[in-house]
User: Fold this.
Amino acid sequence: MAKKIVKRKKRSNAPPSVLAKNRRQLKWRDTITFLHKNTTIATQQYMDFEKNHLEKFKNILSGHETSLKDLALIVNRSKISSLPPKAAAQTLKEFNDQKPKKLTKKGRILEKKNGPGLKPLPKPTLETALIENEETVSLEKYLDIMNRLFTISSIANDFNKQLGKFSDECQENFDSGEGLPGIGGTSTVGDLSNNGDKLIAYWRGLTGNRSFKVFEQGSVDWAVPGLLTMDEENEIIKEKWRHLARTVLRLAQNFVQYATQKTGIIINDSEQSINGMRIGLTHEQIELMDRLTEVLLISPVSNENVGEAHDLLAQFSMKHNKKPEREEIPGRSDKCTLFLPDEAPPVGVKKKKKGGKKKSKSYSPSKVKK
Assistant:
């Protein structure tokens, strides 16, 4: 039997620390590209929502909704009411199964405190998977955008932890904003431009905390008359949902800008990189990504890539300057965004169980009664 000749790979002369750093830099580059691409998709979806679904969205609301959970309850109840009635029970078992289940004492307390929970919907089948409830399409689109942004924030959160862990590999002359004053009642997203931890905390809190009271926060450059009728007050409360989405988009876009400045990584340094970011995007999303690239990725931190970034951005600007007027991008200014609360709304905080662990009794021979 002839022995197989296995060629061994040549070992690199670079020390392990340098190889690990290079791999980390490539991973960071891929993460920034992912965040930039998906933030663009969410922004374009919201622009389409404002253009085609916002009025219908407002008409569905009564003006008394205060949190994202209230929107989800409207969708859930509408879908439950549109289900066909159950067939008449033929056996005693079927009759018992159709009876409403009694709540436990803990369940009654929770229902009284938080209101009725979301009822479980039947699993979709081949016949019902593509059926849309026309009454709640606009609500579902809004909730889908917020869910997408929350999912992106989870990846951004892990990435931000990596930046803190390997801070020595980040830009030395970058001001992290650690000395910023505390958040007050008139602080905006623009005040957090150089603080990644707070950008992530508010980004995750405003999308992941379903009980956050939106109407309690004021809005930037949004004048409210002193005397209002009930209908006018409801219309202003409905407008808060638009301000919430714009606030989250601004947080996401500013974090992409923060990440490129802190790492010094320019993801649009070649035509191949730009074409790779465009894969899977629609024409509208590609056009929007080019516009966001102009304002978010202007980060020539080192002297070596100043010329490259300048040439690329000059190409982008010449490409888009032909259009005299362009639609405003939600999230590029603090206008019509919410003033940030004093603390970011908590997400995924586990409640401590009462009592704790019981200490196990130790039986030592010296303590045993003879």
Summary: The chain is about 50% helix and 0% strand. Residues 32-81+109-119+135-320 form one domain. The CA atoms of residues 217 and 339 lie 6 Å apart.
